[in-house]
Design goal:
Layout (H helix, E strand, L loop, with lengths): L40 H11 L6 E6 L11 H4 L8 E7 L2 H11 L5 E4 L12 H8 L9 E4 L5 H8 L16 E5 L24 H10 L2 E6 L3 E6 H8 L8 H4 L7 E5 L5 E5 L2 E2 L4 E2 L25 H11 L1 E2 L1 H4 L7 H21 L1 E5 L5 H17 L2 H5 L10 E3 L20 E5 L19 H4 L1 H36 L4 H4 L12 E7 L17 E4 L5 E6 L5 E6 L12 E3 L14 E5 L1 H6 L9 E5 L11 E7 L7 E3 L6 E3 H21 L1
Amino acid sequence: SSWSLPDPQSTTFRCRKDCRSLRRRDGLIKYASNNTSQNGEDGVIKRLFELLPLSKKRYCVDVGAWDGVHLSNTYSLLVDNQTQSEWSGILIEADQQRFKELKNLHDSLGNISICAEVSCDPCSPQSLLSILKRDAPDLPHNFDLVSIDVDGMDYWIMANILGLSAPDGSTDSYQPKVICVEFNPTMPTDLVYVQPRSDSIRHGSSLSAFLELATASGYMLVETTLFNAFFVQFELYEQFLKDEVPDTSIEALQSPLSMGTQLYQLYDGTLKLWGCKRMLWHRMPIEEKKIQMIPQNQRQFPFSPSNGEDKNEEANTIREDAIDMSPYCKNCSDDSEDNINSKLHCAAELNSMLEKDGFALVRGTGISGNLCDNALRATKSFLHEADESVRRSCLTKDRARRGYSPMATENFASLLGEEGPNDLVKKFRVGPESESSSSSLYQPNAWPSSEVWGDEEAAFFISSIEEYFEQTRLAADYILTAICDGINANNSDHAQSINVLSNQSNNHTSILTLLGYQYGSRHKKGSKGYMRPLVAAHTDVGVITVLLYDSGKCATLQRVADACTADPTTEEWVNINLPAGPCYIDEPVFVVNVGDCLSELTGGSLRSTLHRVMPQPCKKDDNDAARSCLALFVGLEPSASLTLPHSGENMTYEEWRRGRIARATAVLRNSASK
């Protein structure tokens, strides 16, 4: 035997070599052939009527005849010179252009062509029974063949012609000797699926559903092709076909689902596909990542034994370390003594962390875990999964403030006056819009085109990001209020300078930036840039930054070990314990860090700490390698008046920000000129 153990480093999945099918090939299917039919129906029909007794004149009804040629099951009977004298046809087609071609083909042959959209409503004048009684009055009750192919309502049209779906009290029906009807080949053979009786619904029905209908009407299944089932009146089967088709079970007459899509579950909640992985009629792939019920970073076996590496334990530790902001964010209007004391404790704890490290973890912001999950999924979908054409549909001239910024087009080292390679991160920015302000900080947002991405994907992305932006901005206002309270309680010298933070209007200039990190050259051992930063050491322009991460493996956030250090070349860095995955299922945990503006307004007592994004070891084909982040960079109203304690200068926020960016721009220009 050539069998060997699978590769233990990867997942193995393939089709078993010795799968046994009960499908018989010695019946009518061995005569399958195509003249104009799609999957051998011409040959099956020819053989059937060689076995069935000959009548003076044979009649067929073709429902959904198209142009009478393309994929036709009746062309060989009605047009072929060898058989056309034996057959007369009634052909029904709804498409007007195709009907003209159908009529041109059949008028000279004496066949009846009818332009009608057949209804599955038994009371409609356009039901198949009504059409045949009205437009083909000479059609015999037990005519020879009906072929039904209307892409959806086939079950109810078959029921209608057999009199099982007819107006109350009506005894009208036909009993064709042979029925050829289209079933949905993606449905399992053990599934009885009947679509609703509606002309506007196009689902199709399963083979087992047609078998039940046929059996109840006195018909026997005698063969199937890929899309079509053939039924013959029971008496005719017993007399003429039993020897040819001794086994009429679905298992003997239907091939294993070559067009079926199977779904199976892994212990951690991952859903997997097997079989056909394409939308057959829409000609697009079925993507496993889009059918998952549980986000990837939340999937785990619920009954696995706990151990020291248990992610839930890590998540609980992070949550315990996070500062509870609910006295401000959830109970802001509560003036009870207990809540006032809770606010004082919260403000003191928050400012203590920011004074020490420049970074803090917070929870209790009032932002739901579901919203965070949607925003992270939308970010991953846009930055990592969508085609580049989707992202480039929202390029702008000022990509530092709005729209998409491609990989390696920005340089954060310049914010410190340093030179270095461009950052390896994709970005997308949204911010406030204002028609009344001339400030460049207000601009229209540039959203991805629904024409390029699709209506559903674009709508989910826009709604998720807009809602997250609004909710996080409100939470940031409460966080700033807590920071101001903490400063005022400990350092009244800065009360005047930070007063601007507690007098914020809705005319903020905060920008939400979506960040996407992925496996690349800086993860590859031996490459020139191995383990160099994905985003260079920098500080943030603005007041505070509020960050939310998913659990992607390829990147981590680091800060300098000593918050007083201003040297980006230092080798002393520590990882920030990023909340991700289980941390935001019930109560999201965010990273908050001090920006340059707040640091200057507090005379440096709150530190705008150097930080960077570093690659983490991972494999290119890891499903969870890519990492996404949402960063809210909080900005003030452009005209907000600032007083800087160290220099005593007075300026507007927009003037301060413009000067801060100008210094970075000068570095980039100097670097480009070399």
